[in-house]
Amino acid sequence: MSGEKEHERYLVLCVDRDDDLGTKARVQSPVVGRDAAMAAATKLALADPEEADSNAIFSAVKTYDELVRQGTDCEVAVACGDTDRGIQADRNVSREVQGVLRGGNYTGIVFVSDGGDDEQLVPVLQGLKPIVSVKRVAVKHSQSVEETYQVLGRYLRMLVFDSHYSRWSLGVPGLIFVIAGVLIISGLVFYAYLAILLILGGAFIIRGFNVDRTVASLLRRGPYGYIRLFSMGMSALVILVGVFTGNSLVYSQDPADVAAVGRNPALLFSVGGRLAGYFINGSLDLVWAGIGVYAAGALLSHLARDSSRWRRDGFVIVMLALFYLPVQTFSVYLIGGTAASSFLLISYVLMGLAAIFALTTTIYPRVRARPIDEKD
Questions:
Q1: pTM of this prediction?
Q2: What is the DSSP string of 257-272?
Q3: Rounded distance, CA 22 to CA 64, Å?
Q4: pLDDT single digits (tens) 101-111
Q5: End-to-end C-alpha distance for the chain, whole angstroms
C-alpha cells in the first residue's frame, strides 16, 4: 500500500519588530490574510511613505500571490513587536506568531524581511516552525547602510550613557561651554577663546598621553605610587618654570633681535642661534632639575618597593649629570662662540663619551645581569 504525500501549507510571514504598524498606522496585530495585509501596508505607507516595513508587507503579499499561482497552499500574516526592539519585542512577535500558527496546520514559514534587526528573529521563529525560505527586501536603503546606522546608534548611546566615554564626549564640551559663557557674559571674550584652547589642549594631552590612566595606575600602587605621582607633578612644574625663565632671559638679553624677528621671521636664520643659546642657558638648570626630580622620585619608589629597577633610575641620573656640561657649554657657544668655548665643548663631549663607555662596558653589564623582578 503506497502512502499519500503529506499536505503542505506555508505561512508567508512579515515581521515588524519595532511595531511601526501599530505606532504609525494604528493597526492592531497580528494581521492575517491578504486583504488585511494589503490594507495595513497601505495605511502604513500613507502614514510614512519612506517606511521600509510597508514595502516589506507588500512584498509578502506578492510572495503569497506567487505561491498561490503555483498551486501552493499558504497564508500571509504580519506580526509586530515593540518600539524598544528588545526582549519585549521578541516576546510579542513570538506570541503573535504562535497564535497565527495555531489557526492553521502549517508545515513551515516563508520569512519576508526588510533586513536589519528583523532578521534577528530568525532563531526565535525557527523554534516555532521550520523556516523554508527567507526573502530580503531592500527598498529605502541597503542592509549594509542600515547596519551602519545601527552601529552608529550604539556608539552614540555609549558616548552619552557610558561614564567612561561621556566624561570626554559631554563633560569636556560642557565645561568649555560653561566657562566660555561666563567669560563672555563678563565681557572677557579674549579669555573665553583662551580658556577654550587651554581646556581642549589639556584634554587632548591627557587622553593622548594616557595621563588619566597613568595616574589611576599609580594611585592603585599605594604609598609607592604617591611618591611617583608627586615627583611627576613637581617635575612638570619645575620644567615649566624653567621654560618661562629661559623665555624671559631671551627677552631681557636681546630684545632688539626678538622684535626684529617678530617683524621679519626670515631673520631667525641669522639670529636664531643666539636666541636659542639664551633660552637654553636660562632654562637649563631648572629643566635639568625637573628631570632629576622625576628620576629621583622613580628611584625612591623602586627602592621603597625593593624593586631592582632602581638601578635603571640611577643610570638616568648619572647620564643627566654627564649631559649637563656639554649642553651648558653649547648654549654659551651659541650666544657668542669663541675658540675657548669650542675647545671646552669638544672636551666635555669627549669626557662624556669616555664616561658613558666606561659605564656601559664595566658597571652596567654587571647590573643588567641581575634579574629585574618587578614591572614598572
A1: 0.45
A2: HHHHHHH-GGGHHHHH
A3: 22
A4: 988 888 899 99
A5: 84
